[in-house]
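Components:
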Amino acid sequence: MRPISRGRTGTSETRSVPGDGSRTRRPMSSPQDAAQVAQPYPLSTLRHSVSHLMASAVAKLYPGAQFGFGPAVENGFYYDFDVAVPLADEDLRKIEKEMARSAKRAAPMTRIEVTRDEAKRRLAAKGQHYKIEAVDLIPEGETITFYSHGDWEDLCEGPHIDSFQRPFYFKLLSVAGAYWRGDEKRPMLQRIYGTAFWSQEELDAHLKWMEEVKLRDHRKLGTELDLFSVHGEAGGGFIFWHPNLGAVRRSIEEFWWEVHTRRGYKPVYTPHVSRETLFSISGHLEKYADLMYAPMEIEEQPYRVKPMNCPGHIMIYKTRGRSYRELPLRWAELGTVYRYERSGVLHGMLRVRGFTQDDAHIFCTPEQLADEIAGVVDLVHTTLSTFGFEYTAYLATRPEKSIGEEAVWAMATEALKRAAALKNLPLELDEGGGAFYGPKIDFKIRDALGREWQNSTIQCDFNLPQRFDLTFTDKDGLQKRPIMVHRAILGSMERFVGGLIEHFGGRFPLWCAPTQVAVIPIREEHTEYCQSLEARLQHALFRVDAKLAPGHMNTKIKEAQHDRVPFMLIAGDREAAEGTVAVRRRDTREQVVMPFAEFLALAEDLRDRRALDLGETTTARVAS
RNA sequence: GCUGCUGUAGCUCAGCAGGUAGAGCACUUCCUUGGUAAGGAAGAGGUCACGGGUUCGAUUCCCGUCAGCAGCUCCA
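Structure:
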């Protein structure tokens, strides 16, 4: 299906939607992909064919163009070109027009088989040296084919649609650089992304979905809702959390500590800077040197800012002898780490240089491993479902380059499997995807827009306990080595909250919304009553925005709507006299009048059980 | 880091073939006392990202730096 993209698998085909910034946040198929009506060819075949059509248009418009690969991808297709001039958006429109013309002119697509030499001869005749290289990537013994339409032909395994006479709808979306064969040491080509569908409706729906993605972009909402900022003066990749997002984070942290405390985790705090020695014992200096910041000198000793929290937790473990009686130890830290990321990869809150992991380490015996992992699986479920995420779990097994005895790997992998089985967690297999120091379970969550990202992880580690010579005294009096489990559920506060902004489109559930209740007086003389509402709400620990400044009620309602405040309480003569409030929920224009105490009880209930919705009111009368 | 693009008021953006700038929203003040998404008027706000260069003169042209955007490569 993607013959000419042989040699490239996976990652790049997940990047077709603008606004996507990281591999851990791949856009999945938009809903339209699934909705297509029965066609003789899969959508990907159409898209791949359309990429050929695009290539032929580029060949015509930009003589001398060299061609790379042009596969169908998740949400469309791309083709890489080496053309002398940088392509801009206007060029895309030009190419689209030429595509439409040549689709009419040169409708049928035909396939021919050639020998390896013939293939190279044909490509050499056109001076297509990337394509000649591509021929060499085709395994010996495989049939080599060209597909053509009109006077354009392309090395390609197919399949393709039979003819551009079939109705189809396409759009070219963006252009950006891409290294030839994904190798940064090779020349950079220009990649044009596009998409195609069988019907105009599907194309429109997809474009609309892309618009929605753009509207929800956490960077856009970050400005619009006064959530966070980054500053040139402070350097890229460092997030400044504004009070609004601070409130969101605090709520999440409280929730996080709550569920962790329930599961027997204890808080620890470790320094941000340590002597380099610590990281050379841990091996980070060697393994992760390129992501660590340069040393700073303190009294002639090199110190480093921490890229990970684990060595710190290990220091605590090692302060005294440990008995089997006290295992498992579960130590948690919202630990802020700093990692060097190349400037070009920084992306809002999703890819930064300083971030806070919701980290924890479990020190346990091999016998305890499965139960401990099962506990984390529970915790992952509790946490993710609170935000309305569905997820898939992947068991990542031993990679080629790894350390540790086979028996230990087998034991830990078995423990992961057993834990999953215990919790009825289906596991997909990620063969050889484990860390070099142990197997793991990764969780991929699916957000409200159908995009997938990876945050939660449970990793067994045989390496660090060994490097730091961790021991515990077992029942039999022998010194034994504990297993260390690294686990993060949210991943990092930055990435998780950045993703949450998009998942909720800025409309946070009540429990973590920046402002939870707006109080709006109808006239200035209702200020006093509104102040009393504000005080009572604040006393109940709600974040309240009492809009008491002079100004019109309508404007205040508009502001609260803009800020996506879950509840608006509006109060005038009647409400002040009766001790009631007119409650208006976000996303509806309806209001219900109820006694303030009733509202308070309702809101507290929604908040305290961290409901995703804003509830319903059945008892109160609808305001006239 | 690489390729391409971008940086003008708090935000969204005009403008300038080189003669130091404008709109809407937001903000301030005054008027408006309004029952569910923008009442009216006036005002304030800019070293046109920063540093060099070319020029009589640079926000505009050139170079560099910083930051951002779309990707590539790599990760929570």
